[in-house]
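Retro notes, item 3 of 5
We never archived the inputs for the nicotinamide-adenine-dinucleotide complex last cycle. Fixing that now. Sequence and ligand:
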Amino acid sequence: MLSLNIDLPDTSYPIIIEKDIIKKIGKKILPYAQRKKIVIVTDKNVDALYGDALIQNIEKSGFQVHLIRLYPGENSKSLGVLECVYKELLNFDMTKSDLLIAFGGGVIGDLTGFAAATFLRGIPFIQIPTSLIAQVDSSIGGKTAVNLKEGKNLVGSFYHPRAVFIDPQLLHSLKPRFFSDGMAEVIKYGCIKDSELFSKLETLNQKQLISHMDEIILRCCEIKKRIVEEDEKDESTRMLLNFGHTFGHAVEKIYHYKKYTHGEAVAVGMYHITGKSEEMGYTQKGTAERIKNLLIKFNLPFNLPDIDEASLSEALSPDKKSRGNDIHLVLLKAIGESFIHLADKKNLKEFIIKEGVKV
Ligand SMILES: NC(=O)c1ccc[n+]([C@@H]2O[C@H](COP(=O)([O-])OP(=O)(O)OC[C@H]3O[C@@H](n4cnc5c(N)ncnc54)[C@H](O)[C@@H]3O)[C@@H](O)[C@H]2O)c1
Ligand SMILES: [Zn+2]
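Structure as it came back at the time:
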């Protein structure tokens, strides 16, 4: 078992990483449940694979369980689905002392977290993340949200779980594309804070990677912990987690969130911005090439698709991460060393123009 604690001024909670932890989850959640009612929110894919075993195990510890099963995918992160969740919580007579569990990928985690934050002005919840993105990123740090048709994550709050239980065994059933998707965020952590992790990813073969997955997840959680503890509300250091995301979000948006998964778009964004910052002399030579090789290794794209500059510029502008006229771009000095570069929106063009980007 591996573990760490997130320590913030108003809350503190453990992250436990353990193979097959879901087989003993009933006992594990006992310290966090004041009463006997538990609602689990999951999606149909995760339910089909693990739902029955999870419910049985939790019931064995004496809980009364209700399961809310949603359609998989981003469309479930909506106000409409949120309202259905509230109604089910009411029908099950959930009180402020009962416990909600998010059992799924980032979609389920974000939606359930926001439901927990807002239902009866806040009820306790636990994260059991099942996708790689959720295990290394979305289940930690307290960001919860739903989407509006105008954009992703536009309604949300900072609300932390009471505990996070990560079972790396669950990753075996992930579709390869979703695994690669999560690997983009793992590579990102290496890029911004951990050259050793990056080198490890370069050297491990597929089999070794799987057997080291718990340590890799721990390294990612540790990096996120340090960043979140320093800047819980995303005002300074936490922006480093957006490495590759400014261009990534633009690519996702231009293709209407259909052609590229989030991780694929971030992969493209990381390589593009590093190629540019290398040309401008901010970044050690050879860094973009190393990123590109690692992206290829994990079946991730690296080339910015053929988007005209005007559309790219347009997609970049109304980014939530921008304040006033400036865009906070995350750049690398070298692998493992990142910094925030303030680019005036007018000067953003030098990061967009494609001539000279190595392919
Ligand atoms: N809150 C945050 O800080 C934060 C950070 C990063 C991403 N996010 C959010 O996370 C979401 C993306 O997360 P995601 O990629 O996990 O999406 P997801 O929840 O849609 O999961 C991806 C797919 O994998 C399936 N799946 C999940 N676990 C599985 C398993 N163990 N075996 C088989 N299939 C499994 C799901 O059913 C789904 O089809 C986005 O909405 C994004 O905005 C939030
Ligand atoms: Zn991301």
